[in-house]
Structure formats: structure tokens, C-alpha cells
Design a protein that fits this description.
The protein has 185 residues and is α/β, with parallel strands linked by helices. The protein has four helices and eight strands. A five-stranded mixed β-barrel has the order 3-7-6-4-8. It is globular and about 45 Å long.
């Protein structure tokens, strides 16, 4: 059995209520709700794989507005004791799915500011979201394989929240089709 995970129910709007071979989990947005909900789910039941779907803002302006697999994540909104951005005092700087894919910058606020994206862009991150680092870290703690798929919803700059609200249904459709092709369900 696999666990299909999304932060928001709107990201699963195009998915049927039940998907053969998958349980479903909606965690709520942000790193803490993601950590809490996925930890509880993995503690309660054994899964063969965690499959995360959701939206993300594009930091790379050349990135096509489609579904992308994530390979690595870091937290763009933390610093260590020396003030190094992206470094946490007790967590790994980066976490990885073990698969090829894009680098995503995770933080607890919705990125919709050109100044913020200008700070994140030099890290090499292609996307920004609010949960991926937490999802990968938790799955790693339980030794469960994880795959993360993000559909580009906005450009993570001025007007991004309006863009996201308008794009979430389209993104859910893209993610549903991707999961159908990737997993045959």
C-alpha cells in the first residue's frame, strides 16, 4: 500500500476519493503540519512508499508549467548559529528522495515576493513550496521510500497568491494525469 499525500484538499480535487493501492492524507500547509500529520500516518501503518503531490512556485523563470519530480529539498527560511542561510542548527542542510529531480526550497511562508525569489534563486532551487523538506525528512526517519511531484502554479513573485488560487485546479488535473501515467491508477 502507498500513501498519497497533499498539503491541501484542493490539490487533490481532480483525484477520486479512493485510488486503488493508495491511502490518502491531507496534512495542512507548512512544515509543522506536514511533519505532524505524516509522522502520525507512518507511525500508525506501514507503507511501501509515500507519494506526495501538490503545487509549487517556480523560482526558475524558464521552468515549464507542468509536473516535476523533486530530488532534493532545503529550508530557505532557516539559518544556523553562524547565520548561514539554509543551514539548520540540528537538521541536515538538504534532504533527498534518492531519485533524480529538481531542487526545491521549502519555507513556512507563501513566497510571492521578487526580493525573496532573488535571494533563493542563487541556491539553484527551481521551485519553492511549504512542505517538501518536512515530508522527505519524516519519510527518511521511518525508512519509507518517497517520491515528490510538484505542479508549477505560479512564478513565486508579485501576484503569486492570485495566480495560485486560479491555477490550483489546473495543477490538480495535471497531477492526477501524471499519477495515472506513472502508477497506472
Amino acid at each position: 500500500m502507498k500513501l498519497l499525500v497533499a498539503a491541501l484538499s484542493s490539490e487533490l480535487a481532480a483525484f477520486p476519493d479512493t485510488l486503488p493501492g493508495f491511502d490518502r492524507l491531507v496534512t495542512g500547509p507548512g512544515k509543522l503540519p506536514a511533519t505532524y500529520a505524516l509522522t502520525r500516518a507512518l507511525d500508525a501503518k506501514t507503507y511501501d512508499e509515500v507519494v506526495v503531490v501538490g503545487t509549487a512556485g517556480a523560482i526558475d523563470p524558464e521552468l515549464p508549467p507542468t509536473v516535476h519530480e523533486i530530488g532534493t529539498a532545503f529550508q530557505h527560511d532557516v539559518t544556523d548559529l553562524d547565520g548561514v542561510r539554509g543551514q539548520h542548527v540540528s537538521l541536515p542542510a538538504r534532504v533527498a528522495t534518492g531519485r533524480d529531480g529538481l531542487l526545491i526550497a521549502t519555507g513556512d511562508h507563501f513566497v510571492d515576493d521578487a526580493e525573496v525569489t532573488a535571494v533563493i534563486r542563487p541556491t539553484g532551487a527551481a521551485l519553492v513550496d511549504m512542505e517538501t523538506y518536512a515530508f522527505i525528512w519524516v519519510a527518511e526517519q521511518f525508512g519509507v521510500p518517497i517520491r515528490v511531484f510538484r505542479a508549477v502554479s505560479d512564478n513565486a513573485e508579485d501576484g503569486a497568491l492570485t495566480d495560485w488560487r486560479e491555477a490550483v485546479a489546473r495543477c490538480s488535473e495535471q497531477l492526477r494525469e501524471f499519477i495515472r501515467e506513472e502508477y497506472g491508477v
